[in-house]
Amino acid sequence: MSKGFFLLSLLHPVLGQHLFLVYTAETIWGCDAMITVHKVPLDKSLPVVLHQCWGDSDDVEASLRLSWEGSFLHLRFLVREPQLRRMVTEHNGRVWEDSCVEAFLARQDSEEYINVECSASTSILLGKGQSRHDRQLFPVSVIENIPYTVEILENNTKQSRWKAELSLDLVQLGVLKEGETLEDVPLKGNFTCCGDKLAKPHYLCAQEIGTLKPDFHTPAYFTPIKCIP
């Protein structure tokens, strides 16, 4: 059994130090564990920790904050890793080989899902389909309308830290229908972090995936996502 940790930092009024409250959501790997998304500013949402899924990468940490409004899902990833790779310069390129964060999203009643893969270079790959073998890439014109920013917080010979923030209009991306909001439609999905061409590749995810080799395109392991006020 593993635990997903949610951290809340509070400033002690006397000591002047930050105290950390830890909330846990216990899950059995391979079973669904609900991710609840609140309609609050990202700064006020609790982080979801991404866990190492394959390999040995104890020197990598990643977390994700989520919020929503209308048909928009807002995401903020924070990554710490030994190496920062930002080589992909075009949308729908091989972004997973860079320092990369990803979202896999679908309606709970649908077999089709979208994958949004975001390089630290600010390039994005955006696709849809029912498996990794039938992906249909979105036009670059759609990708260019996605608000996406990357901030490099630290980058030296010891480690890098970077933040990626984006907002996904799930009506525009075909997950929601016109007029629907995220409160109306239960979702499923996963959130991941990777870097296939780093000196030491790593593979982290919010919901554990029970395959022998790295494969994020696994709808069978998507977890329910519920958006509430």
Task: Report the CATH C-level class.
Answer: Mainly Beta
User: Largest beta sheet, briefly?
Assistant: 13 strands, mixed
Radius of gyration: 17 Å
- Helix vs. strand class: mainly beta
Number of helices: 1
Structure described in brief:
It contains one helix and 15 strands; from the N terminus they run ββββββββββαβββββ.
Describe the structure.
- With 229 residues, the protein is mostly beta strands.
- It has a single domain (2-228), classed as Immunoglobulin-like, CATH 2.60.40.
- It has one helix at residues 140-143; strands at residues 2-11, 18-27, 35-38, 48-54, 61-69, 72-81, 100-107, 113-119, 124-129, 136-137, 148-155, 160-169, 187-194, 203-205, 223-228.
- The strands form two sheets. Strands 3, 4, 5, 6, 7, 8, 9, 10, 11, 12, 13, 14 and 15 form a 13-stranded mixed beta sheet that branches.
- A hairpin with a 6-residue loop joins strand 4 and strand 5.
- Residues 1-15 and 18-32 have low confidence and may be disordered.
What are the key terms here?
globular; 229 residues; disordered N terminus; Immunoglobulin-like; two-stranded antiparallel sheet; mainly beta; 13-stranded mixed sheet
